[in-house]
Structures are given as structure tokens and as C-alpha cells.
Amino acid sequence: MTRVRLDAGAVAAFAMWQAALTRLISAQPGFVSVEILPTYDTSPEWQVIQRFAGPAALEGWLAHPPRRALMAELIAMKAAGAPDPTEEAAPDHHAFGAVAEVITTAVEPGREAEFLAWSESVQAAQSRFPGYMGTFVQAPVTGDPPRWAALVRFAKPQQLDAWLASGERRALLDRADPTMSHWSSRRLAGGFGAWFAADESGRRPPAWKQTALVLLVLFPVVMLEMRFLSPILAGLPIAVATFIGNALSVALVSWPLVGLAQRAMAWWLDPPAAHRGRCELLGALVMVALYAVEMGVLSRLF
Q1: Where are the alpha helices (DSSP H) in 32-131?
Q2: Report field, pTM of the whole predicted structure over 0.70
Q3: TM spans, by residue (predicted)?
């Protein structure tokens, strides 16, 4: 992972830099994927995660002279007083709280270079749109014709929709040779998706808060099933008994438990901007306390 803190005036230059990097890395031996994303929405700090099939391919990429030239350009974009871009082992950012569109493109064999050149223009354009939260590009694994996958993230659904419906994107699609590639797309929901209602702007709670709340309501359901349901199902095949238990758990969690918990913790899931810090801290303490109460009460059943 390459980490950099950008200067406020380098937004346009960084958009072009992302496009150039994506085109260059996509043509390298052993390339698996590249992911470009900010630490959070509107953050000046960005991470560029570069994945390769093995250590040798990664080392070749790190030593590639054109990459070094791009890194020199990136240094010129860093904020005044910020350290030079750093290189470190990459964490997993797939739980990032944002809305994403997955675009799969089948490229005719022999026309990969043409496709990557066109993709560079798309990357540069989408990076300039409000709410842009990074891109994940994956090279083909199997298939004929080869299929490239791109995951485009925006902070809010309406911001992603604005890019997808924009005249700039439509012009880029019209410019592409229809004999070169064929594409399809689908929307990904963050976290537990439809279990959590969106606010007026279409935004859902961050994925980590969704997960924390689901754990809060799922844990007692599983414990109660172990205490009271498991003895009843003991005579059934284990696969059948497990399926019944899981089906009951999912049904109870999806309705009504998550809805009730969401209403009770709405002040923490989407706190007002004026009191965000206080609500975040208080909400975290409340969640820890509720976990402790659940464990204390339910431990008496066994």
C-alpha cells in the first residue's frame, strides 16, 4: 500500500495520476488488482493498494522505472510539511462504508491495450466527481474473452448515480468501440444492506456500526437457541438441525430485531453533526455495556 497526504490544490493532478497508474499497473506481469481510496470521505490522505500474484511480480513492479517516475510525481502533490509517500503492507478495506458499482467488461483478445487506454480516460473523469471514494480494478482470472472487473465507490448513492448518469460518462461510453468490449454493472450495498434504512440523502450507517448492531441482536438469539431449541432438535440430522436454527436466527434478526435496535440506537448510527463526537463516544460505551449485560444475563442459563 502506498499512502500519501495530498495538497488541497493537487486534486485535479491526482485524478490524472490515478488514471496513469491504473493503466501502467494493469499491463504488468502478475497484476491482480489495484485499489485507490481515501481514508474517509473528503480526506486528504489516500491509499493505493497494489496486489500481485506473488512476491517476484510485486518486486518487479516496485522496481519498474515508470512506476518510480509516477512516485516522483506523487511526491510533488503531497501537502506542505507532510511526509513523503510511504510503502507498507496493505490492510483489507473491503468493509469500507460507501456505495459501490461493480462493472464487468469482456474485452476482445488482442485489444487489451486499447481497452486500458480508454479506461484511463474513465478513471480520470470519475475521480473528479463529488463523493468519489476510490476504485478497485481487477485483472481477468479466467474466461474467453477475458473479463476485467472494476469496483467504483462513492460516498452516497446519489453521488454515484450522478456520475453514472453524467453526460461526461455517456460521452466516454459512446466513444468506445462497441466491437472492443461489452460491459455490465450492478450495485453493491454496504454492510448488511437492506437491513438498515437509509436517511433522506440515501446514506446508510457505516458498515462497522451495522455489524456491531447485528452482533448485539444476533448473540442472544443464538444463545437462546442453544439453550432451548437445540435439545428439541437433538434427534434430527445435524445438517437439518443447523439449517432450522440458522433460518430462525436470520428471520428474527432481519425482522423485527434489527429494526427495533436501529430505532433505539438511531442517535448513534447517524448522529447530528453538531454533537457527532459526543454521540460517537457515548454510543460506543452503550454498545459495550449492552454486550456485557447480555453476556452476564445469558451466562446464567448454562
Answers
A1: 55-62, 65-77, 112-127
A2: no
A3: 207-224, 236-261, 281-301
